[in-house]
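During the reporting period the student researcher (J.K.) took over the structure-prediction task from the postdoctoral fellow and processed the backlog of single-chain submissions. One of the processed entries is reproduced below for the supervisory committee.
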Amino acid sequence: MMDGFAFRHPGVDRAEPERGDPAVLDRRWQGARVLVLNEKGEACRPAGGDLLQAAERISPRRPDTATYLGHHDAQAYFALPLESAGFTPSETVGVRVAAVDWPAWQASLFAQAKALLHWQSQSRYCGRCGGLTELKSAGYSAACGNCGLVVYPQTHPATIMCVSDGEHLLLGRQAAWPEKRWSLLAGFVEPGETPEQTAVREVWEESGVRAERVRYVASQPWPMPMVLMVGCDVYAPMQPIRISEELQAARWLSRAELRAAVEAGELQLPDALSISRYLIERWLAAGPEVRDFWHTKP
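J.K. obtained the following structure tokens:
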């Protein structure tokens, strides 16, 4: 995994100009590898087959429902919903497992396929007139056969905030999370907002803490199912917490307190594949270039 968390590898060359050329796509299908996903977004393996299957084992001709993902080292890749693949899976693999066990570029390919096929499953009917839609551009758009409206895959941006006064980190906990799990605060970007504005607003809404400045750090595609996590450092003076209904609890922890709670098993951090874990560990190990943000006056 790149930079300590999943789905950051560039994956395949998405070859956007090829999506509108059926003849090129048909040629790409010959010898391609196909990732078949079920309705849960899990990769499916047929008995005696591979998770990245040979296209000719599925169909000699490219199915209309095949989504062109791109190519990597001259090898073409497609995604296909299980109902179009014509087999019963002998094994399924979730994207979280793939993020840990698969090569980084293949995990990114899986994330791409999962998000696209989820969007397709939610776009079968026109949002304007209710008519049936048809996939176009090798799976990257859907056109209504009745009114002609064309829609495209959507990604929902969310900001995740590493909130600190420099010496203490603000962590929160939701009731639905596993027992002892704590993480950073996060929230979706609203219309007309920048991710930095979202960070200030969400920190205030969820914890009652007033943030004073924000710095972008890194981002992560999060196919659960279609989110882009925008990771930010957020400076806020240590102050009383007033949690909202979104949180069960929130607390400030020093580096020593956080390490001790984790070592004692009293507190569990997010999975290592997530940007939230990366931001927390980055804060814990903060060198001068990171600490300067917390201790420099605006």
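The committee noted the following: The first helix runs from residue 22 to 29.
J.K. will present the remaining backlog at the next meeting.
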